[in-house]
UniProtKB/TrEMBL annotation:
Gene3D superfamilies xref list: Vaccinia Virus protein VP39
Keywords, in A-Z order: Cytoplasm, Methyltransferase, S-adenosyl-L-methionine, Transferase
Designated name of the protein: Protein-L-isoaspartate O-methyltransferase
BP GO terms, sorted: methylation
NCBIfam families named in the record: methyltran_FxLD
Similarity field: Belongs to the methyltransferase superfamily. L-isoaspartyl/D-aspartyl protein methyltransferase family.
Cellular compartments annotated: Cytoplasm
Main location: cytoplasm
Amino acid sequence: MTDLDSAGSATAPADDIERAGVLRAGMVRAIAAWHEQVGLPLPSRVREVLLRVPRHLFTPGVSLEQAYADESIVTKRNVDGIDISAVSAPKAISGMLAQCGDLTGARVLEIGSGGCNAAMLRELVGPAGEVTTVDIDAEVVARARACLDRAGYGNVRTLRVDGEFGVPEHAPYDLIMITVGAWDVAPAYREQLVEGGLLVLPLRTRGLTRSWALRRRGDRLESVSQIMCGFVPMQGVGAHDIRSVQLHEAGVTLMLDELGPVDTDGLGEALDSPRAEVWSGVTIDRHEWFADQDLWLLTMPEFCRLVATQDAVDQDVVRPSWRIATPALAAGGSLAYRARFRLVDEARGLYEFGTCGHGPDGARLAERLAEEIRVWDRDHRGGPGPTLTVLPLGDAPAGETPDGFVLKKRHSALVMSWPGTDR
C-alpha cells in the first residue's frame, strides 16, 4: 500500500501532485453527492480509499482532468473499434465497492484488470487480506501490473486467465468482483466463494445491466443489493453478443438479447405506419431516480430495448425517452416503446411517462406498456425493488425455489422476484 504523496513524487512535479489531490477531492465530493441521490450512501471506508488511491497513475497518457472526470478511460479497443478494456468510471467503482461491505482481512478475486480498482480493494482488505486480479488479455495484465507497481501496490497478484473459470488455486474467496459485463453467472463464481461470501458483478438481464451483490447460500446466490452500471463486455468463454436488428436506415435498432424470434420485415415496416401515443398519467420530477421501473418492465414477455441515432430522432422516426436502451416491446410486426417525457407542470418541473406504438398492433402494445408503468407507480415506486436468486441450471436445487420471473441462461436460472407479486 502507498501514501498518496509518495505515490506520485517519483514521477510528477510537486505542483502536479497537489493538483491531482485537489481534483481527486472534487471527484469524491461529486461521487458522494451521487450516492446520496441514488439512495446508496458512500461508506466512509470507501471515501477514504477514493481519496487515497492516485487514480491518475492508472491512466497514463491522459490529463489529470480526464483522469479524475466522471468517465471511464478506455485503455484498449479491438480491431473493430469496440472497447475491450478500461479503467472504470469513478462512480462505477465506488458503487460496487459500497456494495461489498467490510472487507478487512478478506481474500478477493477481481476479474477484469484495470488496476485502479484492484488497488482500492488492496487498501480495503488491509494487511491481513489478499487481492488477485485477472484478465484474459496479456497486454491488459501487463499494463495493470506496471500501473500497480508504479503506484506502490506490488502486493496485488496479477494473472492472465479466462475469468470464466475463476482461479481455483487461490480459492476460496470472501469476495469475487467482476469488473467486465457478464451475461451469465459461471459455476466457478459460486463454487469458489466461501459459504456466505459475496459475488458482485455487472449482470446483463434482457439487455439491462445492473451491478448485483449476491451472497452464496449453499447452491444458490441471493441478492443483497443492485445498482445501475455499465462495463466493457466480457471476453473469452463467457462472452455473449447482444442480438439486434436494424429497423430503419436513419438508425433505429432493437436490441433483442433473450427475446425469441421476431418479424424483422414487419417491424421495419411498422415504423412507416402512423404513431399511436398513450399517456400514463404517471409523473416524475427531473431529479427522481426511477431505474427500477426498467427492471419491472423487463418482466414483460415481449421486452426488448430500442436504440436510436440522433438523426432518427431529428427526423421524427421515433420519439424515445432516451436514445440508448429505451424499454420497448416487440410482437409480430408491431412494437411499442417508452416515449419522450412530456412536460405537464413547468412550475413544479413535472414530466409524464408515455408510450409510442407502431404497426398493426402498436396501439395495444403501447397501452400495455403504459399500464405496466401505472402498475409500477402504484405498487413498486419508491419500494425496495426486486430481488434476484441465481440457481444452477440442470439438477433441481436444494430448498424452495422463489416465485418470480425466470430467465434461463447458459449455466444458471435467474429468478427476479418483486414484493407482493408472482413476477
